[in-house]
Amino acid sequence: MTSPTISLSLVDTDPAELAVDAIVIGVHSQPGERVGDLVGTLLLASGAESIAAAFDGKLTETLALLGATGGPGEVIKLATLGTVTAPVIAAVGLGPEPTGAAPAPEILRRAAGAAVRALAGSTRVALALPLPDDADAPAALRAVSEGGLLGGYRFAGYKTRPQPARREPVAEVLVAVPDAGDAAAAAEVARAQAVANAVRFSRDWVNAAPNELSPPAFADSVASAARAAGLEVEVLDEVALREGGYGGITAVGQGSQAPPRLVRISYTPAGGGTGKRVALVGKGITFDSGGVSIKPSQGMWEMKADMAGAAAVAAAMLAVAELAPAVPVTAYVPMAENMPSGTAYRPGDVITMFNGKRVEVLNTDAEGRMILGDAIARACVDGCDYLLETSTLTGGQVVALGKKVAGVMGTPELCERVRTAGEAVGEPTWPMPLPEDVRKGMDSEVADISQVNAGMDRAGHMLQGGVFLREFVTEEVAWAHIDIAGPGYHSGEPTGYWTKGGTGVPVRTLLHLIEDIARQG
Ligand code: BES
Ligand code: MN
Ligand code: ZN
C-alpha cells in the first residue's frame, strides 16, 4: 500500500506559455486596507509578471472579485480562457509582502503544499512562486520543491474500488526558475526529492492499518526499503531479543501474538566521515492498546500511529543513504505491539533492562520508554557521540505544547541544535527541563527506578518520560529526546503541506541535524 511518487523538475519557459494543466502564482495581502474596499488591495508576488501582462493588468482585480485576500493557505482558482497557455491559474496566498525580502521558506513551503493539494485532479502543475536571486535562493527553491511534493502526498489506502468522485493527486510538479540548467538548482531539487521521498515513506508506514503493520511486517518493510537504499540492516527477532537481555522490548512484546523486533540500520560514509557518530532511535509501537492498563476506546484507533518515531527514523535513513553526509549514522528501531493478554506484562512486574537496570512497572501504558530504554542502551554500547531519539511518548507533550510543537529534552547544547534545526525546516520544537524532583518521584521501593511517578502523579508527565530515558544514556553521549505525541500525526483537516494522518515529523529535522553534524561536528 505505497502512495504514488510525484515527479519534480525545473523549467525556465515563460510561465504564460507553459503547457501544463495549472499554473500556481503567489498573491500577497495588503494589510491596513479596509474590508469592503478589497479590489486592488491584493499584490501579485514576483514570478507572476508575464501572466499578469497576459491579463492586461486585470488579474489582481479579478482575483479580488473571486474572493482572494492573499491570506496564507488560501487558494483561488481561475479559468484562463485562452489568455495564457495553461487552462487554470491557482493563486495561493502568501500573507503580507515581507519588506525588502522574499517570503520566508516556511511560507513558500506551505503555499506550494496547499496549492498542489488544491489542484488534485490536474496531472501537471507548474509553480511560478517568488524566488529570490540572492543567497536565499537555494533555501527558497528547496522549500517550494519540498512543499509541492509533500502537499501532493496521498495515502493509497485500502478501498477495494476507485472512488468515482475522487480527484487523483498531482503527478508532475514543475518549478519555474530563471535558469533550469543551473547545477546548484538541480542539486536542491535532488535534495528535496530525497527528503520528500523519506517523508512519504514515513507517512505511509504511519498511515498503514495496524493489522497490516505488525512488528514483524514493519521490520520486513523497513529492512527491505533500507537494503534497497544500500544500507546495512540487522533484525533481532523475539528469540534474539530475549537471549540478548532486551528485557523492556521483550516485556512489552510478550502480550501480542505478533512478536517484537529490533531493527538496526547502518550508514557508513565513504572514507569514514568526521569521526563523530550519530545514533537515531525511534519508538515503534505498531499499536498501543495500553496493555493491561488498557486505554479508553474513544480515539484508540489513533494509536496505530504510535510508531511515528520509528517511521521517522527509518525513513530518515533512506534519505541519509541518498544525501551521503560525511558522518556515520546508525538507527535503532524497537518494534512491539502493546496488547492485553494472558501473556502480557503487568503492573508490579520488575523488568531487567538491556543495561542491567531494574524497572518497576506501574502502568503498562507507559510502554514506549520500556522499548526505548533498551534501544538507547544498545546504541550506547555500540558507541555514538550524538543520540537523537524520537517518540510519540506522552499525552503530556500535547497538553504542554499542543499538536504542532514537539518537546525536546536532553543535553542542553544538543536540545538547542534540535530547536534550531526544527525552526529551519518548519518542524518547531521547544526545550523542556529534566528536573531532579521529577526523578526523585520515580524512586521505586523495590527496583532501581519506577517506570512513572511512584504515586502515579501525572504532574510533569512529559518530563517523567525524559527523566526515565536519561537512565539509559551513557555519560559522554550528547542526547536529545524529541516527544512527537502531537506533531507526529495530524487528525484535523489538511493544511499547508500536511495531509491527514502521518506528518513525517521529525524526518526533516533529523536530516538537517545530521548534515549539520557532518559539516561542523
Ligand atoms: N502512546 C502514548 C502517548 C500518546 C498519547 C501518543 C496521545 C499520542 C497521542 C503512550 O504510550 C502513553 O500511553 N502514554 C501515557 C503514559 C502514562 C501511562 C504514564 C499517557 O500519555 O497517558
Ligand atoms: Mn501507552
Ligand atoms: Zn505508546
From TrEMBL:
GO terms for biological process: proteolysis. Keywords: Aminopeptidase, Cytoplasm, Hydrolase, Manganese, Metal-binding, Protease. InterPro entries: Leucine_aapep/pepB, Macro_dom-like, Peptidase_M17_C, Peptidase_M17_leu_NH2_pept, Peptidase_M17_N. GO terms for cellular component: cytoplasm. Its EC number is 3.4.11.1, 3.4.11.10. Its cofactor is Mn(2+). One of its GO terms (molecular function) is manganese ion binding. Its main location: cytoplasm. Mn(2+) 1 binds at D288, D365, E367. Mn(2+) 2 binds at K283, D288, D306, E367. It is found in: Cytoplasm. It is an enzyme of class 3 (hydrolase). It catalyses: Release of an N-terminal amino acid, Xaa-|-Yaa-, in which Xaa is preferably Leu, but may be other amino acids including Pro although not Arg or Lys, and Yaa may be Pro. Amino acid amides and methyl esters are also readily hydrolyzed, but rates on arylamides are exceedingly low; Release of an N-terminal amino acid, preferentially leucine, but not glutamic or aspartic acids. Residues 363-370 form the Cytosol aminopeptidase domain. The keyword Protein transport does not apply. Presumably involved in the processing and regular turnover of intracellular proteins. Catalyzes the removal of unsubstituted N-terminal amino acids from various peptides. This is Probable cytosol aminopeptidase. It comes from Salinispora tropica (strain ATCC BAA-916 / DSM 44818 / JCM 13857 / NBRC 105044 / CNB-440).
